[in-house]
Amino acid sequence: MTATVESVSRDDRHRFSKATVPGIRLIAGFGVEGDAHAGTTTQHRYLVRTDPTRPNLTQVHFLAAELFDELQGAGFEVSAGELGENVTTRGLDLFSLPRGARLRLGADAVVEITGMRNPCSKINGLQKGLMKRLITTDASGQVIRKAGIMGVVIVGGTVSPGDGIVVDVPSGEQVALGVV
Q: Which GO terms describe its molecular function (predicted)?
């Protein structure tokens, strides 16, 4: 299966969900134009309170559409943008990517993956019990996070639904994604 962009979203205010739009513009070193989380330093409210000078490693939030399919099977109705992601993908195992992998989106944009999103309790405000589906443990007690991955814009460009996604994996030792 070819990896594609299924949906794109942004919001100029710090709300939990983001509106889906026909396209987004990524700006190198900054993030999604017109999105409240864009910036060279962190824009997430909690992180700003703890260290406002921290580099923004969460400029672009990716979530797999396959998660919506899984959630629907468990009785939840969640659609693109509702979990705050900027880019909803299909056909790409986001969590198998190593730190530093680069996603080429559409004709020009390149985003370098920095880590996993740590789901917050506001998810239950969207639908009760949803948080338990997005952060679980496996049989060995390992924490499994399903709330997407984050990245920084290396090369700007426009991204729209239907655009292809090409993965470039860094050479050398592969480092698993941690939480950013």
A: catalytic activity; molybdenum ion binding; pyridoxal phosphate binding
4-168 fold: M1 Pyruvate Kinase; Domain 3 (2.40.33)
| Per-residue exposure over 132-144, b if at least 16 CB sit within 10 Å of its own CB, e if not | ebbeeeeeeeeee
**Longest Cα–Cα distance in the chain:** 42
3-state secondary structure at position 168:
strand
Helix %, strand %, coil % of the chain (to 5): 15, 35, 50
Say which residues have a Cβ less than 8 Å from residue 154's Cβ, sequence separation at least 6.
28, 102, 110, 111, 112
Give the start-to-end residue ranges of the domains of the chain: 4-168
